[in-house]
């Protein structure tokens, strides 16, 4: 898939990427949907843009650079669709699932829900299925710790009511509802992408025996849940919001094609620190 050439990256983002490229160790942590992969109606059809896949493979190969994908997707689905390079750290279900891509597939940290959480998950799925049955085009995605009402193909006049009904299901179960892009997601485990990024930074610092503050981080995300990840970044890190919407990120690009350009620039800069255009 090749689309129109994206506009040049903003000068201040290029400068920030060039400065980040000189830091080691470097954590490159990326959201999947809407960032590496363009948004589509059918989530099973999502794939990274080829240019992004090439760039992350180069980054994953670079000296003392570690790649992580931090997604709302369940871990298995994330690995299947993203096909990340070996060694990539994977965070699924907004931080509830953790794993690593190995030559033999995903090595996942076992997930253990309590009997109460399992019962709550069953009630949650049933509740959202009832909502979906009443709204044209709506459907429910089930994950190990969560369920998602999708309304991307629902007429707007029905989608608003379905969203409110899904939020009511969550509230009735004592759970929080996260509103994303044409989705309402409800999890039986409270997690956030911010906690996940903090843990990834600490892991990399521990593995390299450096201070946490010595780890440079790039994080790019497009949705409301990515704001939690932007919030935990500090001076010298680079946070990039993809697309429209309020954000605390330090930089913004328009779309996944621009993300591919950003990642290619960073891969070039990492390969030749200080000499990148
Ligand atoms: O954290 P992410 O990797 O961005 O995952 C967030 C959700 O992504 C998926 O839904 C979104 O992408 C779909 C495919 O493009 C789109 O149809 C949907 O409207 C978007 O919200 C995924 O299905 C969810 O489970 C993730 O939580």
UniProtKB/TrEMBL annotation:
Any one Gene Ontology molecular-function term assigned to this protein's record: metal ion binding
Keyword Magnesium among record annotations: yes
Chemical reaction(s) catalysed: alpha,alpha-trehalose 6-phosphate + H2O = alpha,alpha-trehalose + phosphate
Pathway membership, UniProt: Glycan biosynthesis; trehalose biosynthesis
This protein's UniProt keywords: Hydrolase, Magnesium, Metal-binding
GO biological process: trehalose biosynthetic process
Coiled-coil regions listed in the entry: none
The EC number(s) this enzyme carries: 3.1.3.12
Keyword flag Cell inner membrane: no
Cofactor or coenzyme needed: Mg(2+)
Pfam family, one: Trehalose_PPase
Recorded family membership: Belongs to the trehalose phosphatase family.
Main function: Removes the phosphate from trehalose 6-phosphate to produce free trehalose.
UniProt-listed PANTHER family: TREHALOSE 6-PHOSPHATE PHOSPHATASE
NCBIfam families: HAD-SF-IIB (TIGR01484), T6PP (TIGR00685)
Protein name: Trehalose 6-phosphate phosphatase
Record organism: Sediminihabitans luteus
